[in-house]
Specification:
This protein is α/β, with parallel strands linked by helices. It has 11 helices and 13 strands. It has one domain: UDP-N-acetylmuramoyl-L-alanine:D-glutamate ligase.
């Protein structure tokens, strides 16, 4: 792995760009249409990653926008509760609203409904990024949703430019959500451009296939991104584990089998676990396995941010669970 990328991650001071939102789940694991009581938690991919990093002993600040209403204030309070810095979270006026996700704590016939029409986080602009003191941070993390609309897209690319100017690594979770984009063609173009600028790229097989224009070309796309300059490219394959390309090496890793109660939050927890393990100067192979263990922990519990493990919880899981496959 490139020394500059590893040094930035090891310093453990992350600026995370992207959304925070509110999650609601039926408390009794019923179907949403049959729910009589809801469990509430902080959500949003970037906020989940930031919370996961803090729980694993690192520092993380979030950069985004929230609406000036009760849901926006809930998110600000939750960031405080998790210890995520919010100096760069701007509260906005207007009709845009903080994202709301309603998803079920069940795997069979799982339903997720995400409200992101006129999403507040898409109001983040280049000025918001220019207000960030990049000298305070050692690495940038973002998820692909931030690129889906303007002015957030321009702001995200501005964040990449400022990170490069500051000499800190860019960590990119592709996280393609079709409902957020004007068209698949536009998404493929923008996400590919973002990937070409990133130092660490994490995506699943479908996302890499989407970027490549065909599912069967996804693995080749991941490998080519590593050959073209990315220090680490992780090609995730769900229950089949992951293939990682780094420094000319190919690393295959498995998963830790658990009884999953939901399919959500795994990718966010994987990212936090991977970064935290690299920050501890563990080998890339071990870091990937610890990320996989974090993913398994989250899908085996209700909630996303609340289910992100602490270091002690991760160590206990690794002692008690067989694996990886």
């Amino acid at each position: 792995m490139r020394r500059d990328v590893l040094d930035g991650i090891k310093a453990g001071k992350f600026i995370v760009v992207g959304r925070v939102g509110m999650d609601l789940s039926p408390s009794d694991r019923s179907r949403t249409e049959q729910a009589t009581d809801m469990f509430v938690a902080m959500g949003g991919s970037s906020a989940n990653i930031a919370a996961g990093l803090v729980k694993l002993g690192l520092t993380a600040d979030l950069a985004t926008c929230v609406s000036d209403d009760a849901v926006g204030r809930y998110c600000l309070n939750q960031l405080d509760a998790y210890g995520v810095g919010r100096e760069y979270v701007r509260t906005i006026q207007g009709e845009e609203r903080t994202s709301l996700a309603i998803y079920e704590t069940r795997v069979e016939d799982h339903q997720s409904v995400i409200y992101r029409n006129n999403a507040a986080d898409f109001r983040m602009n280049a000025d918001d990024i220019d207000n960030i003191d990049f000298d305070r941070f050692s690495a940038l993390i973002t998820a692909g949703t931030v690129f889906a609309a303007e002015p957030s897209r321009t702001a995200a690319f501005r964040a990449f430019e400022r990170a490069k100017a500051a000499g800190i690594p860019i960590i990119f979770d592709v996280d393609y959500r079709p409902y957020s984009w004007p068209s698949p063609a536009e998404a493929a173009d923008v996400l590919s451009r973002a990937g070409a600028m990133a130092d660490v790229i994490v995506a699943n097989d479908e996302e890499f296939g989407f970027m490549a224009g065909s599912y069967d070309k996804g693995r080749s796309k991941a490998k080519s991104l590593a050959e073209e300059g990315a220090a680490i490219v992780v090609y995730k394959m769900g229950q089949n584990g992951a293939v990682t390309f780094a420094g000319g090496d190919t690393i295959e890793t498995g998963i830790y089998p658990v009884d999953a109660v939901k399919p959500t939050g795994a990718g966010d927890s994987f990212m936090a676990g991977l970064m935290a393990a690299l920050a501890e100067d563990r080998s890339l192979h071990d870091a990937l396995l610890r990320g996989s263990a974090c993913a398994s922990i989250v899908v085996s519990q209700p909630g996303c941010a609340p289910a992100m493990p602490t270091t002690d919880q991760l160590e206990s899981f690794l002692l008690d669970h067989p694996g990886p496959t």
